[in-house]
Fold each of these.
Amino acid sequence: MLSHIHIRNFAIVDQLDLDFTAGLTVLTGETGTGKSILIDALGLVLGDRADSDMVRHGSARAEISATFELNDAPQAAAWLRANELDEDSRSNECQLRRTITKEGRSKAYINGRPTTLQMVRELGEQLVDIHGQHEHQSLVKRDEQRRLLDHYADHKTVLSEVASTFRAWQKINHEFEILNEAARSRDQQMALLRHQTEELKELNLTTSGLRLLEDEHKRLANADQLINTYQSALQTLDDDNNAIAPQLHHITAQLQPLLESDPQLATVVEMVSSAAIQVDEATHELRQQFNRLALDPQRLSEVEQQLSEIHDAARKHRVRPKELPDHYLTLCDELTSLDNADATLDQLEIEIAAKAAHYQKLANKLRSGRLRAAKKLNKLVSANMHKLGMPGGAFEISVIPRADEKFTVHGTEQIEFLVKTNPNQAAKALKKVASGGELSRISLAIQVITSQQGGIPTLIFDEVDVGIGGRVAEIVGQKLRELGTSRQVLCVTHLPQVAALGHHHLQVKKHLSDNDVMTQVQALDETARNEEIARMLGGIDITAQTRAHAGEMVNKAQQRP
């Protein structure tokens, strides 16, 4: 559960530190004091979208941190361990922190470690469930209706299996459609590919072969110049008495006998001898190259023809010449794939049928779970509608297979909430029957019931009691208090009947000073609480009778569990 929240420079909050305990905590205050700021701040630290307008005027940065005890949140504790974000294996606490700069940049932290908003949201969904003051408006949407039913049914595993099986079935279908479409023009494609591969095969190309062919062309094209140059070089190196090689050998022979007289000549002799050996080896290699050279116009023409064919093929296939060998292999693979297309299509059809059968089995299981949950939810919501001032009303969830039997990621049926507000009416779609006030009460009835499902330890209701009052308001407060016996519940309310039923009471006030606006939140003791309930009952003029009534309401409420 939420144990502490720290807020600094957020909206009109300068600095705020609040401790929370189990049970129902109500937040009240006059209109415009910013009662929902605390909920907004908590939503932000749980991963809601940040905005630079959230930073208090004149401040560089807003900061919100929330501390949660994990004794009642085993799933969240397991998530932290799985993601290696548990601060201490012996600790039963977790801290979420969020900062927003005046430029709109934000950072999120879990137990002091920077993390992504997605991870914050994943963790937050296991810690807090927030019901906004306008949530009843989304109740008319079918997607939200399906989500609420599935949340109440608490069948996350089968939902996940249905979704993953649907995506696998969808993927194989996509592969089949692509291959089947290609198969329609397969004969033409195969004829073209066979022609292209045979044409490239005749070139007998490899990357190294192309390089050798280009080198040979350079030699043949420049053979005349190479021959003359080689001849001149050989003559200079070794072909007469004044050539370099004989001269080096002669110098070595002259210096060798002098080593006994001057040992320091040894280095010189070694260097000249080494040079002679190098020149001999160079001469030998050059002579071999020279002997292989020949003026061969016919071979030059053949090589030029081969290179021309290679460059023509490269232009035709829109690749560089050196890429032709790999391109040839790619075309061969495409041809093989088309050759095997029939077998592949048959195999894909088998896999599609298997996935479809598995999906249908899971979808049927999901439908059974939804029908069971709908039956229970119908009775509970209808009973709550009666208590909430709609005695002739009835709630009904329609779980109908799709007419087109189309597979979807959410199953094969359509979910729709139906309601009748009078006993003689037929049940109709929620958005066509319920008025704004009735919709708010029906939404609250559903929220209180569905909130009891799952293991989320902290539930927040932000003015969900809009549009109700009197006896109905007291019943709403009783239900929230009842919920607070097993969960931590925070409720922002403007109704004294609901506020009186809280286990704890926080008051929100707005202060003006030096042209500045600040919101403060303080926990109320018994005396202050009676005064706040009296204000909510009597408005500006609070009489002794109003205070007595407020005290009676609080005393009566505190006698409840």
Note: The two ends are 20 Å apart (CA to CA).
Amino acid sequence: MTKKIKHRDRKSFEDRAKALVDQMTLTEKASQLLHKAPAIERLGIPAYNWWSEGLHGVARAGVATMFPQAIGLAASFDTEMMYEVGDIISTEARARYNTFSKLGDRDIYKGLTIWSPNINIFRDPRWGRGQETYGEDPVLTSDLAVEFIRGLQGDDPTYLKTAACAKHFACYSGPEDLRHEFDAVVSDKDLEETYFPAFQACVEEAGVESVMSAYNRVNGFACSASPYLLQDVLRNKWGFEGHVVSDCWAIADIFKFHRLVDNPVDATAMSIEAGCDLNCGSCYGHAVDAVIADKLDEAKVDQALIRLFTTRMLLGLFEEKGQVSYDQLEWTENDSPKHQEKNLEVALKVPVLLKNDGILPLSKGAQKTIGLIGPNARNIRALEGNYEGTASRYWTVLDGLQEYLEDTDTRVLFSEGCHLYKDRMSGLAEPNDRLSEVQAVCEASDVVIACFGLDPGLEGEQGDQGNQFASGDKPDLCLPGIQRDVLEIIYSYNKPTILLIMSGSALALDQDAEKASAILQCWYPGSQGGKAIAQILFGDHSPEGKLPITFYSEHYELPDFTDYSMIERTYRYATQGVLYPFGFGLTYGKAKVLSADWKEDRSLCVQVKNESDIDIRETVQVYVKAPQFGPVHPELKAFRKVALKAGEEKAVHIKLDDKAFRVVNDEAQSVSPKGQWKLYVGFGQPDVSPLGAARKDLEGQGLVLEVER
């Protein structure tokens, strides 16, 4: 794990920023509060657009390395990998900025303030933007986000490589169609236990430079104008030093939809006074009117601008060319062969094997024909996820299989099977117009690979042009359109069937858990996803992903989408049976925890062994159950990725910090109750029998320790 970089010269940059702001007129100051900040030539200030995206690769500005979607990255449970991904994204962003700015191009998506990561908790599987997150658990989200931010911000002791942004603060996880007016009513306990921890970790452990406020209200206050969130918690409690940016046009929501004030002048005054420094939008242009009307203290405007220019100066944007080491990065860094190689390595880490009756791995060349059926088999959008970049080349599942098998006699028979959500492929045809083709492929195939699920046209952000349903959220957990009907036809042929699910969220797979020979959850696996999937199917690489979210049974009664209580949400509070639990994922081998010893320095020494004859990578997971006050189930408190060669035994050392032994009581206080704390050490959750996996998959894998506190 990398160390936090403390930017020693922040105070000197703040002083420089103040000196610059002191020279501005009020009108000039207001112009610099907007995401599209114009040049002020008399002061030597170049134009700058603050809005850039880098969720899983530099997005929306041309060719760049496109990694798997964030939820897939989370399935890796690999913090070192997250740092490497963040580092590559920031390298490419810097290289692009250096080139674009030299050419006078200072347009949107071409700056160094990267509005990522999204660390909201994926509390409800229907939320369309859950794919952007690191899942449902605060510890997993925190640990992955901290390393990603460190990769984005770099290791220079003076300058930021890019400025990361933890978003959206706070309690933003659907419904999308209500986000501009919705009031998330949240208990103090749930705030402290679930919704705040990842943001706190990003501030205190990663030194994140920016935080984005959410569209919604929390307990009556608009997030972009909440003194409690932006002052009491973020700055006073956690010590945040950077700048706060509103989500785009969220300041306008304050008077248009939340109706907390009547006009943009009052919304501007309220937000700046509360500590929202930068407006993605246009409302802050009214800062002049707010100051003149004595609704806003000009000193608050100055404070916001000092924070903003401090960030720009930390990025080295006011230094002589060549003074900052990152100035040397060139355009050719983008989507370079080295980055493409790393992208494939990452793509191999994210798929999660949910079921395997022994069909996998396939033997290369052993099949005369392989049937590949499904609407996602050659769907580039199902590789991308949202907030995507543009890859120089894409490997769909069809591309990956054809390339992998090109030197064999195996033939791949392909059928799209059905539309992703419509009942026919051709507008003039009868419903299910690919049925006969599906039947023909099944009959002629030795093995069927079924590639179904979703794409960003079915789940995503409200208002995305490509989103088929305006809100972006899923109405339920079912496969859309006639996908289920086509799958049932495939199963009726009783051929070995491997189901590949490409989605950014959980689907109800009860029927598939019974009928499929194997199920591989592939997420949105990035531009090289098809190549990685082929290598996994044929055993060149054993699956190593773990679920960062719960896969609920189709019979699970989810709470109302608008209810932000954690009751019956996520693995920590679910009391009904789940299909595949958080933390679950199979490999092609079998690892075992031989022993786990608790040390006086609050660390665990875990002895693990690969009892199979193939190399694997497993994730040692430590869950803790407090004597009282804690959630219904033990909580993940630590995890470590471990590579194990065939037959290898290895010691894994895991440090548990004080936070692992603290819980939030009913008064929302963080406490460490006395008594017996139970520690569960294994490769998944303790005492959880997935409905969709045989109990033997989990037997003998975990140990229980009791620690007196």
Note: Residues 377 and 670 are 48 Å apart (CA to CA).
